[in-house]
Amino acid sequence: MVRLGVNIDHVATLRQARKAGFPDLLQAARACESAGADSITVHLREDRRHIQDADVSLLRKKLKVPLNLEMSVAEDIVRFALKTRPAEACIVPEKRQELTTEGGLDVSSNKEKIRKVVARLKSSGIIVSLFIDPEIKQVESAAEVAADCVELHTGAYASYCARKDKKNTAREILKIRTAGKLAASLGLRFNAGHGLDYSNTGPVAGLPAMHTLNIGFSVIARAVFTGLSPAVKEMKRLIRKSERN
User: Which end of the chain, C or N, has fewer beta carbons within 10 A?
Assistant: First the structure.
């Protein structure tokens, strides 16, 4: 069954807007757990714009489901991950001024640096994923640096879906399918995420060998109107429906 990882960064974004101590991040994570989330994802950015070190430490101690830490290869972040030891770590590219992650990690051009970080994280028992664009050379490079998983960037697919561009949407889903099939053949877990919402998740969830979909903004945005638990349950329902079709 395809797993759902819920990214709760934007609960922290709301909290940090006033720095008032609420909404409570652990309460949000537990609501997601009870609603069926298979894991919780947070991105500890270098500028600490939303998730804070203390958040990660608390979630690591209190969650029943695995914690997936999105992180850059900055040395202080790597050291923090080694100290905190989340169940999983997903290495992502990071630019200080971006609103959200804008593209996949260029593993092919940075193999040695990424290989060393992957080895350090794995030596602490952390499952390591690389957030990459759905490109053959990047999948092959992920295998070469001994990552455990790839998370394929679905941003371009989501953008074409929003524009109702059927031709390019079909092209992007084929790219994701092809890259995912290659990842699985190379022994890599096949995850995906970025820009997925209640209208476009189905085709991605239904791809062969799909393991985990990490979805955040659309779930938190839906929760403004429905509550967090119903928003998570609805996303789980859509994923289950796609598996049956």
Answer: C
